[in-house]
Design brief:
The protein is α+β, with helices and mostly antiparallel strands and about 475 residues long. It has a single domain, classed as Cytochrome P450 (Cytochrome p450), CATH 1.10.630. It is about 50% helix and about 10% strand. It is built from 21 helices and 12 strands. Helix 6 runs antiparallel to helix 13, helix 8 crosses helix 9 and helix 15 crosses helix 21. The longest helix has 20 residues. The N and C termini lie far apart (about 55 Å). The N terminus is likely disordered. The structure holds protoporphyrin IX containing FE (HEM). Protoporphyrin IX containing FE binds next to helix 6, helix 14, helix 15 and helix 21. Keywords: Heme, Iron, Membrane, Metal-binding, Monooxygenase, Oxidoreductase, Transmembrane, Transmembrane helix. It comes from Neoroseomonas alkaliterrae. Belongs to the cytochrome P450 family. InterPro entries: Cyt_P450 (IPR001128), Cyt_P450_CS (IPR017972), Cyt_P450_E_grp-I (IPR002401), Cyt_P450_sf (IPR036396), Cytochrome_P450_Monoox (IPR050196).
Length: about 475
């Protein structure tokens, strides 16, 4: 007689049906992650052991240097909100990594210089101003759809095309018609080359090791940075007066004594920063979202249904903002694949985080990749479940467990811009194409300045 088979629980059945998209397999032996971090030229995601997805604080002591990962919402709040002034400075590696491209821009600056530039740039990107950028979103999305139609049915590596399209949005926003479309692709390409070549984004820098140990910037990285700077200078020189409002606001900003907040060099630095911060991130988020939609037909069908309720053509700003399910898909994509996977800071003064002493100069990080997949805060944390971001469920999610745009005073200045832009892109693209994943192919996330798919993002595009 055979024993009665136990019925699987509902939870197990759901789990079996879950779509768990690719992630690096956590290493089996926890004690090896320190040497693998130091010696590896790989990436930090591969060093996270299984317990990193459950721990609340992860300390690492290196000779003469400390590093702590804040991995609990209360600890994140302590560092990035309650004691933000002690941790306002970006980590040394981040300053080094971006300086050749963005100079002293606010992204890596701190103190007075950060505050006065943030006060110019953040209001220009305020949610109340976003509708003015909507025509740029639509135009770049339609140009992108045209490129994809020429490349279809594929497989097409959409990552560089998405990066060129979001750079195009930033260039239209900053320079208007003065700069041709090809310049956007050139900027996106140069930045991709910089990311690929920059020694400074590898793990040894991430740990804040001194330059003699961490290695110097490669020649290729320096060339890519120089190329980016030249493209920015050309674009700035080409813009006629009156400049588009975003650039005009930056040029016009004055201190109380009447001197400009940004001289020519500072302006070029901020423009370079906006081109990168405003395009790499949205492109990365959309790249992963497109993959998840392609790989999970039920999500594609639900999106089709939502879009079918809209009149034909590209959505207007209000219609795009009302795409609740598309917003949930993007939010879930940024949970699983946060474009900025690591936020790192250096401590100004001594502090204590839980039972760990923080010394001046120590690195403290929040790692959205870990927090977003933390076993304490997420049900089936590695599974793709966009419904968790529908308004009802999203309201129940504890604060500071989903931080793709960062948090505290340095939170992303372009979050509303980025979200509005991605909703328009998604609507335009999904109306034109049905997405699919080539048989046997899977992307591999790799943490550099942004969380890129290591071998690009190859998708199939069937015209509708
Ligand atoms: C999906 C899209 C985006 C994501 C995920 C994203 C993410 C982030 C994150 C995580 C930070 C903070 C980094 C840190 O604290 O270390 C940041 C900062 C920033 N982002 Fe975004 N971003 C996006 C789009 C944009 C766009 C479209 C713009 C501009 C139009 C923009 C402009 C900025 C600026 C200026 C900062 C620096 C803020 C400061 O240091 O005060 N971002 N972004």
């Amino acid at each position: 007689m055979t024993a009665p088979r136990r019925r699987p629980s509902l939870r197990a059945m759901q789990a079996a049906a879950d779509f768990v998209p690719p992630m690096p397999r956590p290493p089996a032996q926890p004690w090896r992650w320190l040497p693998s971090l130091i010696l590896g030229r790989g990436d930090i995601l591969r060093a996270f052991t299984e317990d990193a997805y459950r721990r609340q604080v992860i300390p690492l002591r290196l000779p003469g240097r400390g590093l702590v990962i804040a991995n609990h919402p209360d600890v994140v709040r302590h560092v990035f909100v309650a004691h933000a002034e002690n941790y306002e400075r970006k980590s040394w590696f981040m300053e080094q990594a971006l300086e050749p491209v963005v100079g002293d821009s606010l992204f890596i600056n701190h103190g007075e210089a950060w505050a006065e530039r943030r006060a110019v740039i953040a209001p220009a990107l305020h949610p109340s101003r976003i509708a003015a950028f909507h025509p740029h979103f639509v135009r770049a999305a339609e140009e992108l759809a045209g490129d994809l139609a020429r490349a279809a049915p594929g497989p097409v590596d959409v990552a560089p095309l998405f990066a060129a399209a979001t750079t195009r949005v930033m260039m239209l926003s900053l320079f208007g018609e003065a700069v041709p479309r090809e310049a956007a692709a050139a900027v996106a390409e140069a930045f991709a080359a910089y990311q690929a070549a920059a020694e400074s984004v590898d793990l040894r820098y991430l740990l804040g090791l001194p330059p003699w140990l961490a290695g110097r910037q490669s020649r290729r990285a320096r060339l890519a940075a120089a190329r980016l700077r030249a493209l920015v200078a050309q674009a700035l020189a080409a813009v006629p007066e009156p400049a588009p409002p975003l650039l005009a606001a930056m040029r016009a900003a004055r201190r109380p004594d009447g001197t400009p907040v940004m001289d020519a060099e500072a302006l070029a630095n901020e423009v370079a920063m906006m081109l990168l911060a405003g395009s790499e991130t949205s492109a990365t988020a959309m790249t992963w979202a497109a993959y998840l939609i392609a790989a999970h037909p039920a999500t594609g069908a639900a999106l089709d249904e939502e879009l079918a309720a809209l009149p034909p053509g590209a959505p207007d700003a209000e219609q795009a903002a009302g795409l609740t399910f598309a917003r949930a898909v993007l939010s879930e994509a940024m949970r699983l694949y946060p474009p900025v996977a690591v936020l790192s800071r250096q401590a100004r003064a001594a502090d204590r985080i839980r039972r760990f002493e923080i010394r001046p100069g120590d690195t403290v990080m929040a790692v959205p990749w870990l927090l977003h997949r933390h076993a304490m805060w997420w049900d089936r944390p590695h599974a793709f479940i966009p419904e968790r971001f529908l308004p009802e469920s999203a309201r129940r999610q504890p604060k500071f467990t989903w931080i793709p745009f960062g948090i505290g005073p340095r939170i992303c200045a372009g979050a509303a811009f980025g979200m509005a832009e991605m909703l328009v892109f998604l609507a335009v693209l999904l109306r034109r194409f049905r997405l699919g994943v080539p048989k046997g192919w899977a992307p591999a996330p790799q943490c550099r300045l942004t969380l890129r798919p290591k071998q690009g993002m190859r998708l199939l595009l069937a015209a509708r």
